[in-house]
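Retro notes
What went well: the complex prediction finally ran end to end.
Inputs used:
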Amino acid sequence: MTGDILKVLIDEETLHQKVAQLGKQISEDYKDKKLLMVSVLKGSVVFMADLMRTIDIPARIDFMSVSSYGSGVKTSGVVKILKDLDHPIEGYDLLIVEDILDSGMTLSYLREVLGSRGPNSMRLITLLDKPERRQVDIVPDYCGFVIPDEFVVGYGLDYDEEYRNLPYVGILDPSACRDA
Ligand code: IMP
Ligand code: MG
């Protein structure tokens, strides 16, 4: 499995240091707020699990799962809610937790859907950002690492549901990809 990784882009130690920094910042920014962290399944679970343990103020968590409608969807930005939040978000200070911000289509849809449910505030944190790929105007409020336009896996991120369990973020060898 690790033979499919061309290069380790962000190692474990670097990830953990950055996550701790982000957690500290969020703990300060949300100390007088009602923090609700919403993880977008499945890619962000590893980041979420590490991040929440570095936050030392009261916080709630919830999960949401979305999928694109077919292959043309990346450009249409239409996503389907596979699993919705368990609880209403009215009055909460929402922090959407994502693994990677790419075209921005998914997040821009989520922001619209969740924003209409009356949260007190809504911000976005992403572990990774590929700004070169952006198709919609969306800037994360908190970001771990800006990365080049390469396909990465590990630390929750997958290729065809594999590699999520790698403890680092690595660039996938294109020859390990089964299709284009
Ligand atoms: P977008 O911002 O709507 O284009 O989609 C972001 C989603 O695409 C992420 O949540 C990932 O699931 C997936 N994605 C984008 N780039 C990568 C990558 O380099 N590796 C793994 N998944 C990626
Ligand atoms: Mg994802």
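What we learned: The chain is about 25% helix and 30% strand.
What to try next: split runs per interface for comparison.
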